[in-house]
Design a protein that fits this description.
The chain has 193 residues and is mainly alpha-helical. Helix content is 78%, strand content 0%. Helix 1 runs antiparallel to helix 2, helix 1 runs antiparallel to helix 5 and helix 2 runs antiparallel to helix 3. It is elongated.
């Protein structure tokens, strides 16, 4: 009888260890997903800012709109470079550089939202001029803005999935996330329509 009980206890312990390892693996995969979606969002934000700077310099817009758009695009690109440099400095100091996530800072949320507001006004103005609204560069900027919105939603969904699992009592008690930072969503105004 005691051998049977010992076998049952051993099977239950093995099952618990397997479930714990599976949960830790799931958390690791979710953190990788957050890093990938963060890198994608970062790339889409950079692409949009670059296209906005190109549109501002193209001479297709009136001077005031060009100046506003150029300023907002330059601020977005500068903040992205600064966040990238800060992430490099942190990695050089012994930290770990996670692609995308390190550059999605709160300061960047603000400048990207400002770029969206300026871009929204420029695109509304472009709709009034049929030739400008059909211009390939304007269409490309509009499409890039749509991709930013989609990338941000995918990233925020991945972050929320990860946070939901990491906040469970068993995960916190067993410290299954290791030393990984708690991910944060990227909140910005991304509606250009």
């Amino acid at each position: 009888m005691t051998a049977e009980i010992a076998l049952v206890v051993l099977v239950v312990l093995a099952l618990l260890v397997w479930l714990t390892l599976a949960r830790a693996n799931r958390i690791d995969l979710l953190h990788q997903k957050v890093s990938r979606t963060g890198a994608t969002l970062d790339a889409q934000l950079l692409r949009r800012a670059g296209l906005c700077a190109e549109l501002a310099a193209s001479g297709r817009l009136d001077p005031a709109s060009s100046l506003l758009l150029a300023g907002a695009a330059d601020a977005a690109l500068s903040e992205a470079r600064e966040a990238d440099l800060d992430a490099d400095r942190a990695a050089a100091a012994g930290g770990h550089r996670e692609p995308g996530r390190a550059t999605l800072t709160a300061e960047r949320e603000v400048v990207e939202s400002d770029l969206t507001r300026v871009l929204r006004a420029v695109l509304e103005q472009a709709e009034e001029d049929p030739a400008l609204s059909q211009d390939p560069l304007v269409v490309e900027v509009s499409q890039a803005s749509t991709r930013v919105g989609m990338a941000r939603r995918f990233h925020n969904d991945a972050v929320m999935q990860t946070r939901r699992i990491r906040l469970r009592p068993g995960v916190r008690l067993l410290h299954l996330a290791g030393r990984a930072r708690m991910p944060r969503t990227f909140e910005m105004d991304d509606a250009v329509d």
